[in-house]
Amino acid sequence: MTEADSADRRAAPAQRAPWLKLAALVLVIAALGLPVNDLFRYALLVIATVVVAAGTMRGACVGTLALALRDARHSASEDARKRAYGSLLRTRARLLSMTAGTRWGLAIAAIALCIVGQILFPAPRIEEGHNVFIVDRPGGALERGLPREAFRIMAAEFDATYPPARRCAPQEIGCWRGQGFPAQAFAFSADGMLEHPASSRHVTGINFGDPVWLRLGFINELAYNWNSQASDVARAQRDRRSLAFLHQWRLTMPWFVMYRFPADFVGSALCWRGEVIWEGAEEKFEPVTHASMQCRTLTPEDIGRRIFGVAIAHELAMRLVPTWEVRLRQLLPPALALVASAGVLALLVRVRGRRLVLPFALIAATLLVALLNDASFIGGVRPFDSGDDGLVYDGYARIMLRQLVAGDIAGALEGVEPVFYFTPGLRYLRAAEHVVFGESYLGYLSLILLLPFLVFALFRRFVPLAWALALTAIFAAIPVGVGFGSSLVQYVKWASRGFADPAAYVLFLAAFVLLLPRTRLLGRRTRSAPSPLAGEGWGGGSCDVSHVAPLRFHSATPNPSPQGGGEHTEFAAREDVDARAISAFTRVFRRAMRGHDEARADGFARALAAGLLFALALAVRPNIAPAAGILLAGGGIMALAAREFRRC
């Protein structure tokens, strides 16, 4: 590797590094597209986040200055050397700008090509509509919006499964008849909020054996908060056997899903187990029930017609087997996103492989805990328990999203309640989560993935690296702290149920870590541990100038004398003076950079960010206010003890 290559790989200046990292992540998200609601794109996002946070931004640094000075030393004449030295800063600035600009230009071009490719060669999209099917009286939204014959078939099946004579009384607490009913034929889906579809959303494929993985958001609508113990129509049942962790939830709500295929899917096979109502000519619908998975090929006559999957009396599983042409078109957009994301990371980020070991180990441990506790937390949508906080928060968030889509921004910001009865913060986080991650709970999962890193950072503030790693491993992998609330499994359990407490404590710990200075251990100043996510120390990504070799300018060879000695010429003396001046300039520059890093790390921005995180944590869960009060009181006492009265 040449010296120029080495200099080009050095990090960007510290004051710009966080913003450059954020910009790199924005480029990756642009390639992935919103919402990020499937596991492949979410995995790419997590990997990109770890690489960007653990690495340093590529670009010229102080090494460019050293290289330019060395080039100047080899100038043929004193005048040429002086001119080179005189234009040093201008040359360095142009080189830095050109190098960084070229990299960013190529990264932006890669993302632009990815987006253009996804627009020009999109995967064929299938119209999907879904909803709960409950009727108690004629004239409802389902009867008005669904095809007449299809509604008649489903209504007859609903009455046979839930006879009117055996239904719970509407005035009974928890009865489904006293709750809400569908307001439209097809339920709202956060996956389609950016598209405004005629039904619920558009999908590129069909493959579900369990409605939890179909991600039906309506199951957690606030209107369907039935008590399964009091209502004859139950919400869900949970299989608590240890080997059933992949399919713990059985959705018992009656529901249906409708698909309408474009012409691209002629020749593809639609397979199902359960009941399907297939539309024929003149809006005639034929119910077809399969006890096992069987397939039917889509013909040109099926294009544009509605095919209903019904889960009222039978459980439903469906799978689409596309033609090879359609399969290739389905693979192209994610492949473009993968290539573009990898290109952005390769162009803009430099990271050592060993720095990725700890982050991915912590992420793997957290995902394993989530998988064993409730696998639906990783990309599925489980039915929250009736009466639980999770159902209330997500129900509020979905109301706010519908208001936002309808253009009622003030209503969405109001948060459903003019005066908050429930804690306000999580409903807003849930709404933001659905905007970014669609009909999934991957946003909350991301907060939980961050938790072990915060625990490691907190321990690292007080104990040596080996102790911090050991304590973090115990927290993440060994549930010894279950008895007193300090084990990862508890945070995962309550987060998967949609409670606010895990999110609040993650935000609280993030603010706490920002405020805590690095302490002295055993009477000496400890070097901050390499962050698993943020480069050297916890403010990684800075311009590392420690590896730049000192400038060495050898004085000119003295003129030979007849006596065998030598004397320095005037030119050599000037060169020696210039070399010392340049070395002094480099040392001053290094000290300024280090001083700037320290000031930035301990400055106003850190305190402001911590304060905002504390406020957000309290909004999400106000009962952690005593902990914040203890921190503030402790800070005030320490300021008084140090006689720093202006801090009080």
Secondary structure elements and their pairing?
Elements: H1 3-8, H2 17-32, H3 39-54, E1 56-57, H4 62-73, H5 78-86, H6 88-120, E2 126-132, H7 141-145, H8 148-161, E3 201-203, E4 207-208, H9 211-214, E5 236-238, E6 249-251, E7 255-260, E8 269-279, E9 285-297, E10 306-311, E11 317-321, H10 324-348, E12 349-350, H11 357-374, H12 389-405, H13 409-414, H14 425-437, H15 442-460, H16 465-477, H17 488-496, H18 501-515, E13 520-521, E14 524-525, E15 559-560, E16 566-567, H19 570-601, H20 604-620, H21 625-641
Antiparallel strand pairs: 1-12, 2-3, 2-7, 4-11, 5-6, 7-10, 8-9, 8-10, 8-11, 13-14, 15-16
Helix pairs in contact: 2-3, 2-6, 2-10, 3-10, 4-5, 4-6, 6-10, 11-15, 11-17, 12-14, 15-16, 15-17, 15-18, 18-20
What does this structure look like?
This protein folds into four domains: 3-122 and 332-352, no CATH class; 126-261 and 269-321, no CATH class; 356-516, no CATH class; 548-647. The protein is globular and about 85 Å long. Strands 2, 3, 4, 7, 8, 9, 10 and 11 form an eight-stranded antiparallel β-sheet that branches. A two-stranded antiparallel ribbon has the order 1-12. It has a two-stranded antiparallel ribbon with strand order 5-6. Residues 1-12, 60-69, 520-530 and 532-575 have low confidence and may be disordered. The chain has helices at residues 3-8, 17-32, 39-54, 62-73, 78-86, 88-120, 141-145, 148-161, 211-214, 324-348, 357-374, 389-405, 409-414, 425-437, 442-460, 465-477, 488-496, 501-515, 570-601, 604-620, 625-641; strands at 56-57, 126-132, 201-203, 207-208, 236-238, 249-251, 255-260, 269-279, 285-297, 306-311, 317-321, 349-350, 520-521, 524-525, 559-560, 566-567. The protein is 49% helix and 11% strand. The chain has 648 residues and is α+β, with helices and mostly antiparallel strands.
